[in-house]
Here is the input.
Amino acid sequence: GAFKYANHLASDWTKVQEFAKSKGWISDYKILINENQRDGEPTLYLMTTFASIPDAAESERRNKEYDAFMKSSAEQQITESGNRAEYRTVKSSMLLREYKPR
Here is the structure.
């Protein structure tokens, strides 16, 4: 399972992140490994850095570009994501904002 997921991250996940970065939608992305996980914590954190959250219309436009880039529909992507359930468990997502004291 871990090998399959590592291959997914190195291929499709990274490909999508590089596409988003080339479009200026994100500024960076990282995979962080939780070396000393406590009970209930994830093994990996997939991080994406961006300046602002797009509105609904922009999100829809980007989704269409993602689908065209990946040559798949939202339904196919959901199915593929569901297939990864055999070797990964999605805990949740977090939205963190950087605070810069002035």
